[in-house]
Amino acid sequence: MKLTQFVNIWLLFVTTVLAVQPFKKVWENTQYSRVIDVGKSFVKERHDIQVTNIDSEPAIQYLFGLPKHMSPDATLVVAIYATKDGKRALLKPQKIPVQDEDLTYFDLKFPYPIAPGSTFEFILSFMITNQMVPYPEHIPMEKTQVIKLNTYAYPLTSYDTISYSLDIANTKSVTELNLDDLPILFEKVENERSVSFVASDLIEGNTVYDFTFTYPRNLPLTYINYLQRDLWVSHWSNTLQLEEYYELTNHGAKLDKGFSRSKYMTESIANKPHHAITALRIPFDHSKALQYDSIYYVDKVGNVSTSQYYENELIIRPRFPIFGGWNYNFTIGWDYKLDQFVKQQDDEYIITTKILDGIQDSTYDKVNFTIYLPEGAELLDYALPFAVAEPTITNQYSYLDVESGHLKVTFEFENLVDEMKNLSIVIRYKYTTYAMLHKPLHAAFYIFLALMGLYVLKKIDLSIKPNEKSDKIESEEVEIIDKDEKSEN
Ligand SMILES: *[C@@H]1O[C@H](CO)[C@@H](O)[C@H](O)[C@H]1NC(C)=O
Ligand SMILES: *[C@@H]1O[C@H](CO)[C@@H](O)[C@H](O)[C@H]1NC(C)=O
Ligand SMILES: *[C@@H]1O[C@H](CO)[C@@H](O)[C@H](O)[C@H]1NC(C)=O
Ligand SMILES: *[C@@H]1O[C@H](CO)[C@@H](O)[C@H](O)[C@H]1NC(C)=O
To answer: What is the pTM of this model?
Structure first.
């Protein structure tokens, strides 16, 4: 039933797309201002677009593209517009099943149809990971890292663009590698913290050209291949325990020669911005009180003492600087009081936590987010700000679990960046007072049984072991015999 419904909707959608001729030039981009922010280790783009309906009928659908090789790395693709009462509202563009050699297309539905001759303004915003490449790949330890970025030159729409500017923000210096190959000239202006390129002429729709440039950025490209984020919920101790296991790589420039500690010391690299990772900063949520003395930081070798917690920020200092291409795996953990996260109504609980605590300026390729609910709990519902596959639900035994074990709920996320750290996951579950009482009662029972067992074992030991063991036990045997004699007496 569900599947057929889905197929029907899908067919309807495809036919609608075909019916309205998606690539018809119903719009003109009257103003198109694009900003590429290169201040972090991933790309952030913001396009301020004003469109005019140049057709003879009202229009509501706007199509735009992203290069095919980039689109798997694009995340949080949203459009924002101002409503009539001045508030900001969000639109979610959808990928459409239209094939093209170079581009993936997105369909953006405006909130209402725009009349012929009228304009609509909106902001398109997204982030793209995996785009920054050190250039050259290998450099000496003391040299400044240069990053190469390969992007596209003009708006990726089939509509003509009357006025277009491209700003590279958060860098003072940009070197273009292919400016001369571009059909529409750019006028370059260098500003205090950005470099602007202004198109000298109208850009026809479907003018697809690469634009490649370099800029200095002497900071690491912190990349987390895998994060396992575990949350343990305990109503009994009123704690929310977090443990995070990281597999991290610096995607920054590699050393051209082997690592030299003396050079590292004389250049005092640890004390200035550098392409090696010397510290990782995790700014925590100010609104939640963390239990300071519960923080730990462990790597393959053992406890690492060089971490600091200061003004709600955890600063982790690895044992060695992590240069480009180097890996580092580690685990950190800390506790919160649970009641800051949970709301209860009768037997139902709602827990709201962040999907990430976010290492500053980093990309997360794969994240397994697991929440361990108490034994006997039942997952009712969950909510996330973006679509993900259904979670995997299993049971996991831990200390003192007696029957089915903790309820383990795992969500798999991909392609996150630290700026998504404020996004929350909300989980609703049922946990009856019976289940809550059940565990300690059971535990008490098993502890009792265990003690009983010990008692019995002691009895057995005393009677069986004497012949193979030491004098001490023999003397105990004697004692027993004595006792026996006494009791006989
Ligand atoms: C690590 O340090 C904590 C206290 O800071 C201690 O309880 C724990 O036993 C240590 N672990 C190892 C493996 O040294
Ligand atoms: C980190 O973990 C990954 C995956 O398990 C492994 O391939 C890599 O060798 C580890 N790196 C270090 C430095 O231990
Ligand atoms: C992440 O979780 C899924 C589902 O539980 C599991 O299949 C997968 O192996 C996990 N990934 C890693 C690297 O442990
Ligand atoms: C997350 O929220 C806190 C306040 O709750 C704010 O200070 C911080 O700037 C936000 N971080 C991001 C990356 O949006």
So the answer is: 0.82
